Amino acid sequence: MTNPASVGAVEELPREKVEHFDRELAGILNRYPPDRKAAAMIPALRLGQEIFGYLSPAVQRLAAQRLGTSPARAEEVATFYVMFHTEPPGRHVVEVCTNVSCCLTGGERVFEHLKKKLELANGQTTRDGRITLREVECLGSCGTAPAMLVDEEMHERLTIQKVDQIVGGLK
Amino acid sequence: MSETLILSKRWGKPDSASLASYRADGGYGALDKAMGADPAAIVDEVKKSNLRGRGGAGFATGLKWTFLPKDVRPRYLTVNADESEPGTFKDRYIIEHDPHMLIEGIALTCYALDIHLAYIYIRGEFARQARILEQAIQEARDAGILGPRLLGKKDFPLDIHVHRGAGAYICGEESALLESLEGKKGYPRLKPPFPAVVGLWGKPTIINNVETIANVPWIVANGGEAFAALGVGKSGGTRLFGVSGHVNRPGVYEKPVHYNLKKLIMEDAGGIVGGRKLKAVIPGGSSAPVLAAHEIDISLEFDAVKAAGSMSGSGGVIVFDESVCLVRALARIAKFYAEESCGQCTPCREGTSWMEGILEKIEHGHATAADVEKLEQVAGNIAGNTICALGDAAAMPVQSFLKKFKPEFLRHVEAHRCPMGESGWGLDQSSREALVGAVRY
Question: Does the interface predicted TM-score (ipTM) exceed 0.90?
Answer without folding.
Answer: yes
